[in-house]
């Protein structure tokens, strides 16, 4: 792997779009920073790594990504501290995960040195797009997709790996109401649920719309066989606090191995909070809600950070949750963000200084 | 719905690429005819229907299709008879299925009159791209995809509906060897397996590559729970002939409701061949292979037509199949193609004259 900085060609914007951006009214993931990274896979190798002004691609309508969803992505964030230093959070995890996703989707893996070099160069150029202040961040979207022309259903021999960056605020603005899946499902044993494969997300839009019509923002997915075990939400892993124990599903080939999830588990263990990584059933959850032992539910994810759940729906019943005094979700959110924004020690070595 | 022909703007090529095409050496789905159809969904309506020269799109790298696989497609074919007339085969089925797929993927449905008008106009323009002769056809690829810019995981509010056309010969050139899925799976209960959703296909590439390395062209997928029931192949439904009974899996939310499959069932019933639409187990299949009652396996699909299976692999055993004298697969292939190429009566009303 080439670690030289010369391998990325840089074409800068002539005028930054930064002054036009209304940072107080950002819609999540719809504004993009001045530059993007692009690298092509052809003739068996990644090549032509380039940083260039964010803008449209010229691409054939017969590119395989449009027809066969051969595409994977990642989601990470850059945070700015009070001195203007910029940090990523555990970026090695995202790097490893995109390659794991790529492998499952028959996409060639991307070189580590080039991935980090691209991030360094992009963030050096677009540092001012990272706003300081708790809750502000620059969302980073690496992705890979099949660009070979052809409508035969077989893996492509040409791909693009790209990185876009988007200034964001919180993903959910209030508490989240969720419904427990009883009919639709997110992934199968032996499927691609553990990968951040593009098609996993599009497939959830319709059932999530149905949930929205009933007043829920998200679905908590259950296993496809029996709808018995609680798995994860659309873009978050899910934690349940029963009495003082923190329960979350084990990862599997159906569940994304979330970076925030594993960070919450590590913080809980450090703080002496009992954790139990096991398959919780819907029956147990409902019983705990009824007998009062269910104290909290929250989601964890890069976009959503820690997202408290204020109610869940099941079998046409709604179970409301009142946030306890010693809220775990608030505690983890604060502890995580303090590390991310360089407001606390970093005992785990999760901060990655970048610009 | 507007049925006027004025609603599609037509921009013709100045010079046809037809003379450059080597029709004897076509790679499936990699050559495209002179024109394509494109229509945009925005502000809540399909608009700007246009036929234009086949060529690249200018599209944002943040378009949702790249990130969330919110895309569906269809596959159909145009056939030319000996007098130069062009026919589609049951195109209403494809029209209905793409809208069914779209619904499951939260994509707005496309108007019927516009779909057929687009096909009529495209085929009038590119009629010479349909080559006569058994086995030659023009493969037609309607598809819809999310074009809205934004990396928030939610349905788009802008889409493109397009139709590409590609001259093809046979999809498989010889007999096909298949392996029975024992680890990976194609779809989940409550998932999107019954839709022609883009991501279903990309998700199969890796396990299909593993099968290829062992000498199989395709995987026969089984249910994700137990890998016990035989379902379908990557781009074909699957039929098993045990003694003289033709068995195929019932469609479900995991299995594509194939047009070729239902045509084979109709022809079999007309011809007095016993059919049994039921869930065949892998155990039954292996037992039938061992006791000699398994006579044939074949796949059915628009691209592959009828594709005889010459062997299947299971548990590291290979079961070879010898084509019987009174081969069902040959018979159905002939009867289907005779209808498609206007060489026989069309008692079912499946031929659709178009150009
Ligand atoms: C399906 C799914 N589960 C969980 C997560 C949370 O993972 P992470 O904490 O790494 O962002 C995400 C988002 O990345 C996701 O898409
Ligand atoms: C998964 C799958 N099964 C079966 C088929 C066969 O369907 P049809 O006969 O309509 O082409 C296809 C191809 O269209 C397919 O993609």
Can you walk through the features of this model?
- The structure is a homodimer of 355-residue chains.
- Chain A is α+β, with helices and mostly antiparallel strands and 355 residues long.
- Chain A has 2 domains: 2-168, D-amino Acid Aminotransferase, Chain A, domain 1; 176-340, D-amino Acid Aminotransferase, subunit A, domain 2 (D-amino Acid Aminotransferase, Chain A, domain 2, Alpha-Beta Barrel), CATH 3.20.10.10.
- The first copy, chain A, has 7 helices and 19 strands.
- Chain A has helices spanning 64-68, 91-104, 112-125, 198-213, 259-270, 282-291, 328-340, and strands at 9-10, 35-42, 45-53, 57-59, 71-73, 76-80, 86-89, 137-146, 159-168, 176-180, 218-222, 230-233, 237-242, 245-248, 275-277, 294-301, 305-314, 317-320, 351-353.
- In chain A, the strands form 2 sheets. In chain A, strands 1, 2, 3, 5, 6, 7, 8, 9 and 19 form a 9-stranded mixed sheet that branches.
- The radius of gyration of chain A is 21 Å and the shape is globular.
- Mean pLDDT of chain A is 96; it is low at 1-5.
- Chains A and B meet through strand 4, helix 1, strand 8, strand 9 and helix 4 of A and strand 4, helix 1, strand 8, strand 9 and helix 4 of B.
- Strand 4 of chain A pairs antiparallel with strand 4 (57-59) of chain B.
- One pyridoxal-5'-phosphate binds next to helix 5 and strand 16 of chain A.
């Amino acid at each position: 792997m080439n670690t030289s900085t010369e391998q990325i060609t840089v074409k800068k914007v002539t005028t930054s779009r930064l002054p036009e951006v209304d940072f107080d009214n950002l819609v999540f993931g719809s504004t993009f920073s001045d530059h993007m990274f692009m690298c092509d896979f052809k003739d068996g190798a990644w090549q032509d790594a380039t940083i260039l002004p964010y803008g449209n691609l010229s691409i054939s309508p017969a590119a395989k990504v449009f027809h066969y969803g051969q595409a994977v992505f990642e989601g990470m964030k850059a945070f700015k501290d009070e001195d203007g230093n910029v940090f990523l959070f555990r970026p090695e995890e995202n790097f490893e995960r995109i390659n794991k996703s790529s492998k499952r989707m028959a996409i060639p893996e991307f070189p580590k040195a080039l991935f980090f070099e691209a991030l360094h160069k992009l963030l050096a150029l677009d540092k001012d797009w990272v706003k300081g202040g708790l809750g502000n961040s620059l969302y980073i979207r690496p992705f890979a997709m099949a660009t070979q022309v052809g409508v035969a259903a077989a893996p492509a021999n040409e791909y693009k790996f790209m990185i876009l960056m988007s200034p964001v605020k919180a993903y959910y603005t209030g508490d989240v109401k969720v419904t427990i899946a009883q009919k639709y499902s997110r992934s199968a044993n032996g499927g691609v649920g553990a990968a951040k494969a593009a098609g996993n997300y599009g497939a959830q839009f319709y059932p999530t719309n149905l949930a929205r019509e009933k007043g829920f923002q998200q679905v908590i997915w259950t296993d496809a066989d029996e709808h018995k075990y609680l798995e994860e939400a659309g873009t978050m892993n899910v934690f349940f606090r029963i009495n003082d124990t923190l329960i979350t599903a084990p990862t599997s080939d159906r569940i994304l191995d979330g970076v925030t999830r594993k960070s919450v588990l590590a913080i809980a263990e450090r703080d002496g909070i009992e954790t139990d990584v096991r398959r919780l059933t819907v029956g147990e959850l409902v019983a705990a809600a009824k007998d009062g032992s269910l104290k909290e539910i929250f989601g964890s994810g890069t976009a959503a950070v820690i997202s408290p759940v204020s109610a869940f729906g099941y079998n046409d019943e709604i179970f409301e949750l009142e946030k306890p005094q010693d809220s775990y979700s608030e505690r983890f959110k604060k502890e995580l963000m303090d590390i991310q924004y360089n407001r606390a020690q970093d005992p785990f070595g999760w901060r990655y200084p970048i610009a």
